Amino acid sequence: MTYRNPPTTPRKSATFDDYTLSEIRRAAATGIYDIRGAGAKRKLPHFDDLLFLGASISRYPLEGYRERCDTSVVLGSRHAKKPIELKIPITIAGMSFGSLSGPAKEALGRGATLSGTSTTTGDGGMTEEERGHSKTLVYQYLPSRYGMNPRDLRRADAIEIVVGQGAKPGGGGMLLGQKISDRVAEMRTLPKGIDQRSASRHPDWTGPDDLEIKILELREITDWEKPIYVKVGGARPYYDTALAVKAGADVVVVDGMQGGTAATQEVFIENVGQPTLACIRPAVQALQDLGMHRKVQLIVSGGIRNGADVAKALALGVDAVSIGTAALVALGDNDPRWEADYNEFGTTAGAYDDWHEGRDPAGITTQDPELMQRVDPIAAGRRLANYLKVMTLEAQTIARACGKNSLHNLEPEDLVALTIEAAAMAGVPLAGTNWIPGKNGF
Amino acid sequence: MPAINLSKALDQSHASRIFDLAEIPLRELNRALHNLTARSNETAWEVLNPKGSHSVAVGVDQPVTIDVRGSVGYYCGGMNDGSAITVHGSAGPGVGENMMSGSITVKGDASQYAGATGRGGLLVIEGNASSRCGISMKGIDIVVHGNIGHMSAFMAQSGNLVVLGDAGDALGDSIYEARLFVRGKVESLGADCIAKEMRPEHLDLLQGLLDRAGVTGVKAAEFKRYGSARTLYNFNIDNADAY
Fold first, then answer.
1. What ipTM did this prediction achieve?
2. Mutate to test the interface with A, among B27, B29, B74 (most CBs of A within 10 A)
3. Whole-structure pTM value
4. Which end of chain A has a smaller Cβ tally under 10 Å, C or N?
């Protein structure tokens, strides 16, 4: 009998993991960077790293099913003659017609309207589907200005000047030719079937001083009626918030890197921008330093999934949150019922992110007339409304447990962090200690 | 707030309605213009003392004439939809941005982004236009009597840009289907922009534009046409060096 040395277990590199190896092989075979939809998929410090303390001897809770806990919020009260009043502090983020199908846009409008909240257009103009089915519609003013016109500007309920988004601060968009149908092409004034590039900078202003003049123009065109939001990606949240306020914004929207996109380079999504959790406190601090907290409202988006996330964001000083990816999942995105179709594309339900290819089995991120039939806008709108209701009830449950009769009365003092990173980012103590990293010299 | 002498500022005895911005705030001017309907008889407007004001006569959607006596700041005539605006002076950045229809004539020079993202109508600059003239234009017609600056017609999607003088660097970079006609020298062409054959239909089109813009003594045959080579319409890694 020969003696064999005991073998070691095959060991894969943590640095060169399976995904990394597959990406190197893919790049080597194609010579093109990987484009995909959605937001950052890497693990990031997030709301899961925060906990609420709840009531105790020194704090009285509110009765869960008896005592009122207000969820309403007013947006745009700084300058607009007609601010927006929402029943819940959860809005639907901007997603373009073109990226999404007409039925999906209609479903978002229906769900938002049932829930007493707003939905938002996207990089492709306003469609009748969403205007008709959205009680409160925010009209995005984007660098591409696709579909921009004064009539739609005036029939919007608010205007959102998009400077950037969390998935790609500093980046423009790309809608590949296969999604440019006749209707999409017409709305964007482009030939059918070509790759449509969205600019990364606005064509007629640069910098905060110009932005102030641009905001003045939009207010003049709309007779100072509409709230004007300024949306930025999570790049420099303190200064971006301060400059948006200085430029005259009614509402600042900060989108962290978990916020989704229709199509951007994987390397961009995963390596540019800051996590949502890291953006909130600097943005709130900027408002507080300017004496504008609660006067200029702050909306935060990027990875909001449940009522706990909503409550935590509000406790950190946010006025409302916005959801995109989660809303699409509520409509039916990445649903296991289409698993066979996902498998055909070499992926699986929950991982499908080739939204730019226009072949979405769930019929949401497509312009294919047959696929989009898979979205029943009434049923999908109802699912979104149900989901929003659950999130709201969850946030109220937590707020009552903290003794708050309004979601907006939640405060940083109600929170602790599970990790040092989250404690530093959120500016709340590490659980079991009174240590906030970076405060008091430590 | 100083008392406003309305009888002096809103002089109704003239054929045109006069707004003196030295006495009446810009808000009142734009409000009055937005209150116009198709039945309004006040079809001729005059704006005095603009003194570089921003957003003069923005969002007008009725076919009235507006004469601005002096120079304006940013975004004069922004999103104009049907009115005929004449600036008897020079215009700051973004004159006629996102115009839908109607016309804007600038007697002097225009700053950056003239006619940016315009969808229709006619913008005439009788002097020179600065950089990024016609950026992202989507159907507007622009006629510049003088020269235009660098990066003009960047990502221009549709419409016509006519330049009687010279064009600066990187003309028509990443252009889509807009047509560019330049009579003078082009400093350089941007990515995917090439000189194109001037066919009879282009000469007719150009002559029509020159006529509409009141240009006389200049022949369409004196211009060269530029447009998209269409090589960047669908992403191809072999074109990466072009960006």
1. 0.92
2. B74
3. 0.95
4. N
